[in-house]
Fold Response regulator transcription factor.
Amino acid sequence: MRVLVVDDHPVVRFGLVGLLSRDFEVVEAATGEESVARASTVDVVLMDLQLGKGIDGVEATRRIRALEKPPQVVVLTTYDSDADIVRAVEAGAIGYLLKDCAPEDLAEAVRTASTGQTVLSPDIAQRLLRQVRGPAPKLSKREVQILEHLARGLSNREIAKELFISEATVKTHLVRIFVKLGVETRTAAVTTAVERKLIRL
């Protein structure tokens, strides 16, 4: 598997490349523009949000996901504001991790993202959960539909086709579902939804 590390800090890139090179073939980019130019040659992109001059990580993600055969994009950043998270997901990122995550978690997140599954840092999930947690966060009609399709074992692409929406929209809904249900995986989302009688198998 080939991974692109995008960060404008040379020391950070050096550390990430050294870490990930144990398991993957790794290339790097220092700017958003470089990341877009090199994205078509990789399977997963680890994208920082703030990249100095030029386009930022969100815009780079949007352009990468617009490629003919786009790689998956996982945001890896120190920025964890709600606005940053939503912008990144809406741009097409399949995951959002903080740079203080454990090395083994980062490698596993890359593998998970490569299969098209959403990756969400537990810290981010908890932060968002606190934001949306009311008496009982309710799922929208569309979110229930997404869960029903998940329960059938459909991929993001298959769900998008079934519901006549974009794959990026499916990913956005998945992140919101994960947050509302307080889970981190597709399997846990389905299990929790069934337990709460939100869907039927």
Notes: The CA atoms of residues 3 and 189 lie 28 Å apart. The two ends are 35 Å apart (CA to CA). The longest strand covers residues 72-77. Residues 167-181 form the longest helix (15 residues).
